[in-house]
C-alpha cells in the first residue's frame, strides 16, 4: 500500500514528560479501512499483521463471491492479492451468505516495543534504509523525525514515517477503539486464530470457511516476516534496558501504550 499523505510536522503537545521529552501529537486520522463487503471492515495497521490478515480475508472473499481461486498456503506471501487488486470485488452481486450489516470493524494491534523492533528490522535490515544505526539510535531519530528533524535519507523518510506511525493514528483508533474488535498481534497464534474466528462468526461468516481461511495464521508466512528470534530478543532487551529509549518510545506511542493496556 502506498504511504498516505499527511503533514510533515507533528506538533508536540504542550505537556511534557520526564527529562524534557515532549509527547508527539497524532496527525489527523488516516483512513486505512478495507471494506470487504462480506460483513467485515478491516483497519490495516502497518507492521501489525496486515499482510497475513489480508491473505486470510482474501480466502474468505473468494469463497463469498464464489470465485474458483483459492489462496494456497505458502512462504514469503504478499498482501498484494487478487482481492486487493480487484478492490474486494465490491461490484459483484454474488453472495454465498448474508453478511452482518453494518459490518464488524476489527483490527490487529501490536505492542509498541515489538512493533518498532519490527520496523527497525525491516527498514534498517532488510531494506538498508539505516543499516548503520543501532536500535536505540533509530528510536531517537524516529522521535525527532516526528518533530520535523530528519536524520534518515530524505526520500526514504516518508516510507519510514508511514510504517512507524502510531497505530492510534489509523482509522481514528485513538478516539474510536471501543468501536473495534481488536486482536492482540503477537506470537500466540492459537489465541489470535480463536479471537479472529469469533469475529468472523459474529460477521456471519460460515464457521467452516472461517476455520479454513485462518489456517494461514499458522501455515503461511509473509515476505516481511523476521524469523531471527534471537536477534529480535536481543534488540528488545536493548530497548527495554535503555531508559532514554523508552522515554522516546513513550513520547511517540503514548496512545498505543494506552490502547494496549485495555486489551485482553
From TrEMBL:
<dbReference type="InterPro" id="IPR027417">
    <property type="entry name" value="P-loop_NTPase"/>
</dbReference>
<feature type="signal peptide">
    <location>
        <begin position="1"/>
        <end position="20"/>
    </location>
</feature>
<feature type="region of interest" description="Disordered">
    <location>
        <begin position="220"/>
        <end position="239"/>
    </location>
</feature>
<dbReference type="InterPro" id="IPR007669">
    <property type="entry name" value="Chst-1-like"/>
</dbReference>
<dbReference type="InterPro" id="IPR005331">
    <property type="entry name" value="Sulfotransferase"/>
</dbReference>
<dbReference type="Pfam" id="PF03567">
    <property type="entry name" value="Sulfotransfer_2"/>
</dbReference>
<dbReference type="GO" id="GO:0050650">
    <property type="term" value="P:chondroitin sulfate proteoglycan biosynthetic process"/>
</dbReference>
<protein>
    <recommendedName>
        <fullName>Sulfotransferase</fullName>
    </recommendedName>
</protein>
<dbReference type="GO" id="GO:0047756">
    <property type="term" value="F:chondroitin 4-sulfotransferase activity"/>
</dbReference>
<keyword id="KW-0732">Signal</keyword>
<dbReference type="GO" id="GO:0016020">
    <property type="term" value="C:membrane"/>
</dbReference>
<dbReference type="GO" id="GO:1902884">
    <property type="term" value="P:positive regulation of response to oxidative stress"/>
</dbReference>
Amino acid at each position: 500500500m502506498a504511504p498516505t499523505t499527511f503533514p510533515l510536522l507533528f506538533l508536540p503537545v504542550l505537556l511534557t514528560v520526564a527529562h524534557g521529552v515532549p509527547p508527539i501529537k497524532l496527525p489527523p486520522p488516516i483512513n486505512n479501512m478495507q471494506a470487504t463487503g462480506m460483513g467485515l471492515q478491516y483497519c490495516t495497521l502497518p507492521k501489525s499483521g496486515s499482510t497475513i490478515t489480508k491473505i486470510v480475508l482474501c480466502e474468505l472473499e473468494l469463497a463469498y463471491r464464489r470465485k474458483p481461486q483459492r489462496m494456497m498456503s505458502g512462504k514469503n506471501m504478499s498482501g498484494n492479492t487478487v482481492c486487493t487488486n480487484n478492490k474486494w470485488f465490491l461490484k459483484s452481486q454474488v453472495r454465498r451468505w448474508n453478511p452482518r450489516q453494518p459490518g464488524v470493524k476489527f483490527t490487529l494491534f501490536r505492542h509498541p516495543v515489538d512493533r518498532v523492533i519490527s520496523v527497525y528490522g525491516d527498514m534498517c535490515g532488510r531494506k538498508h534504509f539505516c543499516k548503520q544505526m543501532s536500535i536505540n539510535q533509530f528510536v531517537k531519530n524516529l522521535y525527532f523525525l516526528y518533530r520535523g528533524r530528519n536524520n534518515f535519507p530524505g526520500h526514504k523518510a516518508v516510507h519510514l514515517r508511514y510504517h512507524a506511525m502510531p497505530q492510534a493514528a489509523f482509522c481514528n483508533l485513538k478516539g474510536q477503539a471501543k468501536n473495534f474488535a481488536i486482536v492482540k498481534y503477537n506470537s500466540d497464534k492459537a489465541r489470535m486464530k480463536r479471537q479472529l474466528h469469533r469475529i468472523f462468526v459474529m460477521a456471519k461468516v460460515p464457521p467452516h470457511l472461517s476455520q479454513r481461511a485462518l489456517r494461514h495464521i499458522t501455515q503461511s508466512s509473509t515476505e516481511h516476516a523476521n524469523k531471527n528470534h534471537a536477534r529480535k530478543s536481543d534488540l528488545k532487551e536493548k530497548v527495554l534496558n535503555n531508559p532514554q529509549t523508552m522515554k522516546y518510545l513513550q513520547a511517540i506511542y503514548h496512545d498505543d501504550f494506552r490502547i494496549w493496556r485495555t486489551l485482553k
